[in-house]
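Input.
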Amino acid sequence: MGKAIMLIFYLILTGTSNFVSAKTSQLDPKKIETASVSTYVTDLKSGKTLFKKNADLIMPIASLTKLMTAMVVLDSKLSLKERITFEPSDKERIYNGYSRIRMDSQLSRGETIRIALMSSENLASAALARSYPGGYDAFVKAMNQKARSLGMKNTRFVDSSGLSPDNVSTAADIAQMVKAAYKYPQIRKYSTTSVHTAYFKKPRYKLAYTNTNALVRGKKWKVGLSKTGYLDVAGRCLAMIANVDGKKLVMVMLDAYGKLTPIGDAGRIKKWIQTGKSGKVSDSARHYQRQKLSELTK
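Output.
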């Protein structure tokens, strides 16, 4: 990686800038480029949409799903101190995917939400849904009811983890979900936990977790809420609320082709807010977008 590119990513991760912020009213949407297939940026306080690209395109959302999972659990008012037991049926719900959590061990509901949000632990999401009153199916039904209540008209959930490509939404709908999730203090806290050790019981053991968002781990950006997502069919996804020059911005990036691309898009959005220009994206990113748009709009 060249020195210039390394410098760009350093500036993105650290939030270092000498720029003077551009006025929101003077921002030109024609002077911002993002590498993600779909992007939506709005001012949390005013509700003003600052930038949108393919924001109403319905597509898989991967683990961004877990924001809805957390809201439904918290809405149930179930005790966050109650211990949840991880069962074989939870493993089946995540298509027998890998997890470091041991079967039949226990963790408090609050800690289970935390590792689902900060580290995207799929088994935690499955256990949260299964331990909901009425069971897993009732939980998924509640997820869809919550989505409708938030005006998320183009959203459908079929599982609590986001592993199914049938969990679909739009960047505009996800922005609504992020705004709603931000009202929950636990979601703000859990999703922006940088590193954490979870202590399990029966048997007793501990596991270390890290946040999947490098901007949270770096601690230079002021991130108020965060959730990443990834599936082959969904690409790299990122939804977050970040403070940029005193403005709380809702940023949603869906389907980016590279692991660092959503982080790069966040940096481009920040630069656009501060200078009025975002800079360019790579030719490979443009090619990826054209290819995916062709597939999604068939």
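The chain is about 40% helix and 20% strand.
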